[in-house]
Amino acid sequence: MQASGNTLTMEWRKLLSEQRLGKEVVPGAGAPHPRTEFTRDYDRIIFSSAFRRLQDKTQVFPLAKNDYVRTRLTHSLEVASVGRSLGFLAGEAILRDDSTLATVVGPHDVGSIVAAACLAHDIGNPPFGHSGESAIQEWFQTSPEAKQFVAGDNLTASERADLLNFEGNAQGFRTLCFVQNPNQRGGMQLTCAALATFTKYPRASAFSEEKTSGVSGKKFGFMQSERVLFTELADEVGLARKAGTDDAWYRHPLAFLVEAADDIYYHIMDVEDGFKAGVLSFDELRSLYEPWLDDEKRKRADAIQEEQRKAEYFRATTIDVVARQAAKVFEANLAGLMTGTFDLELTAKIELAKDFARFKEVAKRKVYNARQVVEIEACGFEVIAGVTHCILRCG
C-alpha cells in the first residue's frame, strides 16, 4: 500500500496476487500450467460439492413446476457470466490507468477473477435464501436452548455475534476456506485475489458503529473461526485497513464488480422469473425494459412472436446496457475505489439508475410477495429451526 496524503492507496500488483491462501510459498516451485491460476480457481469451485448443492436451493420461486425458473445454481452461473464481462471491461480500464500492469495481468485475467468470485458468491447461503439466514438468527436469539449455549462461557463476545447475526457471506468464506476441505489449511486454497474479490463485506461481526458506513460495512464477511486466515488474506493483497482496533478493511476494488453482477441478475432475472411464474404480466414486464430499448431494439423485439422469447431478448439487451454503464462507473471512480473513499453500489451511479431501481421495486411488490413464495418461506423457518436444533444437540 502507498500513502497518498493521509490516505492509504491499494496497489494492483498486490491486489491481483496469485498466492493461494494457506499454501506455503516455495520460490521457483512448479512448472507453468496451461491454465492461469485464476481459471483454476473457477474450476475448483465449479467441481466442488458445495457448489453442486446450490442446485437444490431456491432463487425466488421454491419447488417450481417448470425448469425455466432459476435455482441458486443457475443463478450463480449466470452471475459469473456477467461478472466475467464486467471484469474484462474493468481490466481494460485498469490498464488504461496504468499501462505498466500489462506485464502482470490482462483484461481476461481480471474477468476470470471476478467470474470465480461470482460463481461462489452464494455458496454459503442456507436453504430459503435470506429467509434462511433470518431463521437461523431468530433461532439463536429466541430458542431457550440456543440462548443458553450462546450465553455460555465457552464463546467469546465476537463468536456470539457470529451466531446471533448469522450471515451467509461469512459462511461462504468459511465454506471456501475450511468446510470444503477441512484437512487442508485454507480449505480449497483459492488465490488471494479471488477470495478478496469474493469478500464483499471485509469486516468481523463485532464492530464499532462507524464501521457500518458504506455498502461494504453493512454486513460481515468472515467468522472468528477464520479471522486469522482473513487477516493473512488482507495482508497478502494489501487491503487498506480502516482506522481503529476493529477487524475491518476497505473492499478489494473488484468486489464492487461482484456486487454489480449480482445486482444486475438479481433485479432483472427475478422479474423475468415472476413473468414466467405468472405473477407478472407481459405488459408490466415490458414497461420495465422500455427505457433500455432504442428504436432498433424495439423493432427487433416486435418481430418476435412469442412473449417468452421477447422477454428473453429484453433481458439480454438490458443486461448488456447495465453492465457497460456499471463498468463506466468503475473506471470513473477508480481512484476512490483504490482508497476506499468510494463505497457505493456501482449500479446506484449508472446513467439510468432510477430505471434500474424500478426492477427491484416491482420485484418486492409483486414477485417476492407472491403467495407461493411467502408460504414456502414460512415453512422454511420451521425447517431451518428444526435442523439447527438437531445440529446443536448432536454437535
Main attributes?
2 strands, 57% helix, globular, 395 residues, mainly alpha, two-stranded antiparallel ribbon, single chain
Topology of this structure?
Blueprint: E1 2-4, E2 7-9, H1 12-15, H2 37-46, H3 49-52, H4 72-97, H5 107-119, H6 129-142, H7 144-150, H8 157-164, H9 168-179, H10 192-198, H11 227-237, H12 255-276, H13 282-289, H14 295-302, H15 307-332, H16 334-339, H17 353-367, H18 371-394
Antiparallel strand pairs: 1-2
| Overall strand count | 2
Helix-strand topology string: EEHHHHHHHHHHHHHHHHHH
Q: What topology, given as strand order, has the largest sheet?
A: 1-2
- For this entry, what is the oligomeric state of its chains? single chain
For the sheet with most strands, the description reads: 2 strands, antiparallel
Number of H/I helices: 18
Class by SSE composition: mainly alpha
Cα-atom radius of gyration: 21 Å
Question: Separation of termini?
Answer: 43 Å
Q: Approximately what portion of the residues adopt beta-strand conformation?
A: under 5%
As a percent range, the share of helical residues equals: 55-70%
- List unreliable stretches of 5+ residues: 28-32, 59-67
Task: Give a written overview of the molecule.
By secondary structure, the chain is mainly α. Helices cover 57% and strands 2% of the residues. The protein is built from 18 helices and two strands. It has a two-stranded antiparallel sheet with strand order 1-2. A hairpin with a 2-residue loop joins β1 and β2. α4 runs antiparallel to α12, α5 crosses α12 and α6 packs across α7. The longest helix has 26 residues. About 4% of the residues have low confidence.
